[in-house]
């Protein structure tokens, strides 16, 4: 997996099964490459990707355990994250609008 600036975030070889996750620090297009070194005739391969971004990428269970919160407090924490994401998006759009007006 490479970042938009070409930094390698993950590299593995000879992996047949597993999971991998990362938290992005930069916005942009991330690339992932998969290859089969010695393909066997008639064999099949599959890769399942679950790319999550924004609030969907947050591990709320870990946050709840770490901060020792549950129930309503956890839901309020999720809502606070949603409000922050909306606010950040609003500021981004406002900046883009100002750039386009120039």
Automatic annotation (TrEMBL):
Residues 1-78 form the GOLD domain. It is a single-pass type I membrane protein. GO terms for cellular component: membrane. Coiled coil: none annotated. Keywords: Membrane, Signal, Transmembrane, Transmembrane helix. Belongs to the EMP24/GP25L family. This is GOLD domain-containing protein. It comes from Taxus chinensis (Chinese yew). The lineage of its organism: Eukaryota, Viridiplantae, Streptophyta, Embryophyta, Tracheophyta.
